[in-house]
Structure formats: structure tokens, C-alpha cells
Amino acid sequence: MKRKYVKKAVSFGLAAVTALVLAGPAAGSRAMAADTKLTIKEAQINQLLTGDLTLPDSIEGAPDAKISYSVGDANPAYVSVKGNKLKVTRPYAGKGNYKFTLNATVTNGSDTTKQSFDLTIAEGTSADTKAGYVYVCFGNVKGSDVQQLHFFLSEDGLNWTALNGFHPLFEVGTDYADDIETVGTHNYAVKAGTDIKSTTSGDASVLFPFEGNDQGVRDPYLIRGARKEDSGKVWILATDLNTMASKYGGNLSNNSVGNWGTMSSAGSTKLFVYETEDWVHWERRYIDVGNEIDAGAAWAPEAVYNPEKDNYLVYWSCRVGTDGYARNRLYCNETKDFKTFGPTKMYEEEAFYQKWGKLVSSNDGYGNIDTSQLWVADEDGNPYGTLYRVVKDETNNHIELMSADTVLDPDVDYDNSDPNRITSYTMNGKNYSSLGDLNGLNDFQKAEVVWNWFKDESTGNHFKYISQKNMEAKKGAYEGATMFKFNDRDEWCIMIDYYGSSSVRYEPYTTTDLSKADSVKKLTSGYGRTGGDVGCHGGMIPVTAEEYNTLIDTYNADPTVDNYHKIEYIDCDKRELEDIKNEIKDQLEDNTLTDSQKESLNQALIRADSLSKVPTVDTDAVEAINKKVDCITNPVKITLSKEAVTLKEGYSETVEATVTPKEKEMTWKSADKTVATVKDGKITAVGKGSTFVFAKVGKEGLAKIKVSVK
User: Where is the signal peptide (predicted)?
Assistant: First the structure.
């Protein structure tokens, strides 16, 4: 029975996109026609097209110039052009993106310029399409920090909506909710008598920092698994700190913040690690990384995959007692699983004092904190092409950009480096080799000495500075920079926490080329967060449509939560499902179908209809329905040239088989290889007896031949 189903080219999820034209300088219209180059931004940044394009129909400075477009032999089911209108239809989900070439001809008088632009149309959205972003952070409500984990979601990476009514994530969970109590308006504590060891695995309530020194977490960061063994895992790393704790001079009840100096010299040296594979269930770990180096704290932990070692480098900021807590640096640990951590090493000790060249202010230390790193693929598609780094210069609180080819400095012996080892340094004729020698030095002099003490122990100081004047001009209250790549184009976003304004906080700076000096620029509009929801220092990563929708279902599902903001599911491409449903309905009108076939088709229709009603659709599930319908309406038939063969031992005979439909793949198998074997229809007698040889097409078709060996 021949299927009537023919896929239709129907637009899905169209979004207006405008191609830009930049006209080059020219002395006159004639010269301009020959010299002008069209610049279509979507081609430059490999924008995945999801909707129609309005192409330029004029060039500034050349009013008589004419522009014509064509798409050559591109498939008209996906793209066509009429005038300056490019009509785009996305391929069905799971069918792959569609690439084509747009040709442009500019004519001005007798002069003609021809150009071509490579463009790509995005396939329809499926469950595993990277279609949104998640931002993890701690919060700020009415000017005071809520030092617990919060999630925001965004479809464009610029406009963010808080989940769970901007309440802490742990409140969604129920497993250990009864073990947590509120303190004042912004803080929480573990109830007396709680068995903390039993709270490390379960639902979202695991995200509360039960073991915490202060029952607070700050500066969370998200990282996906990159090793083969853990590619489905996601981790959150976070600082163990509540700035309102009494040990620092703060007050949990009235939200008073304690002394930052005390926090940085007598804080927790442990990190929180949260692990999930589904964004619903979590495991929590509490790991000490700073005690072995006499760290004063362990702040803003992040991690990056190191392809050379197939492990992760976890890095974090602190001051250490070895130099009297003179300045902040980055320290690090290697891990393969975020359970077992290697020894602590020094990672990054920037020589910012050398740039300043003088005493800028007292107690600044010229240190560096809040480093964040991101791999960018090379031109050959290697995802680990160049590693970019953003870091805060604490001298005046601005952010700098750097790059390297490797995670670790190839000129430093990582294993034999010692973060506590001082190499004596001579300045102005005096030798400095111990903490006591620093007495009497101002901060600038001290910065020179302590940097030289440890410069040979730093395992990640090989990054090269990239000037970014627009970003560096922002100073005084900037930190917590983090980076991500937009899902649909070659453009990167650097988010910087402007803590000078609790109504703004993270602000986006973008570039299409991180390697290009002074290319990073702050956006002036088109970004923000849901009103009143102020996310602070944290991290962002892209998520799939399935993950995005799961996060909504898990953390925005309680109608009793106040302050919910409207947030929509990402709806997957259901065009193929609709086509399948229509085809099934057509087939059910066929009076030649058996009752069994009709029943099977009705079951397939029910399954297709149920999938079309939910936002997340897996292309594998759609394909399974498609195959089932195909088997019912177009059953496999195998026709053999013989039904039985008789052979003598050692002799062979080939049986021809015809399969309908022809594209079906057939396999052969002998029931008893001691009697006869078969390969591609050639039957060979092995020993006396009888058996059957089968010709098979999956689970859909079967034919057999009786074989007798004399």
C-alpha cells in the first residue's frame, strides 16, 4: 500500500531579521559602484536564520545604484528571493540546517560589482536544540543580599526572567525542607538536631548549604561535563559565605554586613559543589581546598576543561597567610569528577602593579580575583582552539581580557610547583625572603616583593593581554565577569556585575571577535531582568529546549508562589507531527485496511496527538511514529526465487531475493550453521541434515528457505 504522505514546506517560528549594508567611502557614484562592498552581518557572524530577511535595496551615497539578488540552485522549498525579500522556510526538526549562497549584483551606471554570501537556515527546534540560557546567581532584594542559589532563564541571553518568584531554589524541594528555618527577612539556618549527612542527595532542597560555615552561598558558577564519562552532567560551584554572619561582625536578623577584611582572612576555605544530570535531582559536596595553603577564604570558584589532561581545573580567589594576606590571587585544583581534588596550586598572579607603576591607594594590593574562562573553537572546528580569560584588577576594579592556547603554562612544572614556596627577592639593595621583611613597605612596594616571591610558582600566568578600552573604562564597582557564546551566531557576551547599582547589576558587553583589540562594547539597550529581581555574581550557560522547559516545570510550577513572572515554554517544531497526523487520518479512510491495521494506525494517531500537545518534542519520538506508520501502510514484502534448495556437502547455490520497498535493507541468517551458512543469499552446504535460512528486514519482514544437505 503506497503512502500518500508528502512533506510540505511550511514556515515555522519565523522571526524578522534584517541584513545590514555598510557602504565604503567613494569620491563619486561611478567609483562607488566598483568599490562598494555589501556587508551582510548575518553572513559575517554565521547567523542561523529562523525567518525572512529584508535585504538592502539602496546604498547610501550612491542613489542611482541598483542591487539585485539571486540564490542560484538553492532548494526553493527552503529559500527564495524576490526583489529584496529573502523568503526562508526552516527544515523540519532533525533534518539538519540548510546552507545556501546568496548572490548580489550592484550596478551603478556601467560599473558592476558581484558578491556572494554564505548563509544558513536553522532546522526546526527539537528537544536537544540549544535554544535558551540559564543564569545561576545569588540575589539582592531591596538592597540586601539573599545569599542562596537562584535561577533566571532567557531565550536571547540578554533578557532574563527569574524562576520560583525570585525565591531561593531550595524552597522548591520537599525532601529536607523541614530541616531549614528562616532568620530575619533574608537569611536561613539549619534547624538544631538535623542529620546533615543525610541531606546530600535528593530534590532541590539539596541546594541549601547545609554544611556551610555561615549557611550562605555566593558567586555560583555553572559548568557542563566535557569528558566522555560525564557529558550529561552539570555542576554548580559556589562560595561558602554569608556576609551577614556574626563572626564577621554582621547580623543575620537585620541584614547588617560584616567586615570584608575579616571575611577574606578568616573565612571558609571550602567550596560547595552541586551535581545534576536532569536539573531536578542533585548531589551536594563540601570540599576544602584552601586549608593546605593557609588561605583566608576560597571565593568565586569556577572550572574549565583541560583537553590536554582530560580533566577539569577548578580555580578560585583568595588571600594567604604566607604573605600576610597582602593581595588576592587565583589558586587551583585538578579533578576528573568534582569529588576528588588534587593538591592546591597557584594559578594566576597578575602583575598589575607593574602597569600602575606607583602607589595608587592604600590596601588595594594590586591583586586579581573573579577570573572566568571560555574556550572558543578554531577555524577547523576544534572546540578547544583559544582559551579566553576575563579577570578583575582590584587596583581600581575594572575588567581585563586575555587569551592563551592552553589551560596551564607549558613552561611551568605543575606537579612540582609549590604555592607556599618563597623565592627571595632583592629590591633597592635589600633582600626580602620572609613575612617579617615586609614591615614598613607601602602597598606598591609590597606588591612588587610578593609578586616576585611567587612568580615561578604560578601555573597559569601565560595569558596575553588584549586591550579592550571600552570595557576597561568601566571602573570602581565592577567584578564577577563571565562569558558565553550566543547559540545562534558567532557572537560572544561578557557579562559584568556592576555592583555599584543594585537595580542593574549584570550588564552585557558583546563582540563578534574576542581576539580583536577594543572590539568589546557595552550594549546600551535591549537587555534587562524581570522588574525588581536583581541577580548578582553568577554564571550563564546555554541550555537545550528540553532543559529550558524542565527548569520551568521544576522551579516555576507552584501557583502559590508570589511574584511569578510570565515565562513561556520553548515550543519545539511540530510540523512533521502534523503531517503524520494528517496522513494517518487519510489512511484511515482506506477501506482496504484490515481491522488490525486500523487499530495500529489509531494508536499511532493517539501517540502523535499527545506529542503535539506538549512543548518539548524529541525528534527520535517523531521518527518512531513515522516508522510505525510506514510499516503499517507500506508493509515490507520479501519475494524469494526459491522456497527450498537441496545441496551436497561443500556445494553452494544463490537464492535471489526482492524487497519491497526497495530502500529497505535486508539481512540473511542460517538457523543451523553446522548444516548450512549464508551470505548475501549464497547458501553453502556444510554438513548433512536440514535447516532453514532466513531473509529478514528488521522486525518488519521475514521469508525462509528450507535447506537440505545430502
Answer: 1-23
